[in-house]
# Entry
Amino acid sequence: MFDIKKIYEPTCLQEALDIYQNNPQLKVIAGGTDVLINLRHGKYEEVELLSLQRVKGLDEIKMLDDGTIEIGALTTFTKIFRNDLINEHIPILAEAAVSMGGPQIRNIATIGGNICNGAVSADSAPALLTLNALLVLETAMGSRTVPLTEFYAGPGKVKLQPSEILTKILITKENYTNFKGKYIKFSNRKAMDIAMIGVAVLLNTTDNRVNDLRIALGVSAPTPIRCYEAEKVSIGLELTEDNLKTISEMTLLDAKPRDSWRGSKAYREHLIKVLTYRALRELRGDN
Amino acid sequence: MEELKKKISFIVNGEQVSLEVDIRTSLLEVLRNELHLTGVKQGCGVGECGACTVLIDGEPIDSCIYLAVWADGKHITTIEGLAKNGKLSKVQEAYVDEGAIQCGFCTPGLVLTTTALVEKGEHLTDEEIKREISGHFCRCTGYQKIFAAVKKVLENK
Ligand SMILES: Cc1cc2nc3c(=O)[nH]c(=O)nc-3n(C[C@H](O)[C@H](O)[C@H](O)COP(=O)(O)OP(=O)(O)OC[C@H]3O[C@@H](n4cnc5c(N)ncnc54)[C@H](O)[C@@H]3O)c2cc1C
Ligand code: FES
Ligand code: FES
# Structure
């Protein structure tokens, strides 16, 4: 049994926001694949849950008039990786979605839960960071939009205000048009494993020269990060072998991996370089 | 302690069921302990092994990390719901024919996941088949025969 004292099951967002406003002590639960594991491990006691399972309308993926792609926070990873809009415009996110967990987990785990859980290994994070994803956070009093890059507070911690619910993820048109992307998840096992390193690369080029390159890493620092140093240097560079190597080396200026049982710091540093290089080569069109 | 109970109604293997559940329980616990559907197995209890897989509105879900109250209004299929009039389903037969069963602990979950693939009429590559059954641990067979059974039944469709 889970140590649950009470559960609210609102059926619409407004109801959920109102309940949360009046009961800020509630623990939000979406797919439960982090919350219920924590409960199983005794991390919370007599928890009061605010379940979003029955909230309607937050599991849709659509394109807005200005070309922004909007993803409801309750969208499952299965739905993301099978969605046509995602596969056509931001395939890097489909790649990340299908790399996480196994089918049964993907059938219920939500992208909003993945972001709000704040794990450094969250598979959606590197891809969303390269896409400059924006988060729409709502309370009963109003809403705010925050870039994902500014949402992390520390290991496993995000800047959610009391009674705030993540409702949507936005990816604006200029952040996916003319970009090609690649997510590489490196883990000990091929299936059902947490990343040892996750590398996302998003690239926009003209005539083999970099207009805009974005590199983001999972499990390489206390939170998922962007490699701004390497990105800055890359602008205008031709995608030669030497330049790809230089860019890949420079990711280590931002990465601060550590030792863990999954992999040592030295091995992780090696992986960050090699996987960034591999992703870049693939995006350049090599195989 | 009123708050710890909730009445739910759902359809289990085609039959309407209404009962009061403890909000602290998983669907796995309700299926096994209240409805005596012991074909649903508990392995890890934390979403890793897939032994507890059931179909919820046709999708494979780990019932050990699914709250019982969430099942209200859903269609649930367990392994007990597959054979009709004493006759095994096509998927079950394929598992038997291919010798894909040893101790049988992982089998209910795998058969249900395979059933979902068949019902969706999926055409899958070998790699995709492996991916779709990767949420199930089998400690006995080494997976080859399970893979063969899934492939067989998907192709015969
Ligand atoms: C077997 C297993 C394998 C896994 N493998 C992976 C993997 O490979 N990669 C990976 O990245 N993760 C993995 N996970 C972790 C987990 O599945 C993901 O983090 C998942 O996306 C969490 O989503 P959820 O909807 O289940 O979140 P929940 O558990 O419901 O919630 C997670 C956290 O986010 C908060 N929250 C959820 N939704 C909202 C919202 N809309 N607004 C505000 N707060 C919210 C909750 O309060 C909680 O703190 C795995 C988990 C399991 C059990
Ligand atoms: S018992 Fe549910 S996944 Fe292992
Ligand atoms: S047959 Fe024994 S675990 Fe699969």
Remarks:
- Residues 2 and 85 of chain B are 41 Å apart (CA to CA).
- The pocket of flavin-adenine dinucleotide (ligand 1) is lined by residues A 27-35, 37, 52, 73, 100-101, 105, 109-110, 112-114, 116-117, 119, 121-123, 160, 165-166, 194; B 46-48 (CB under 6 Å).
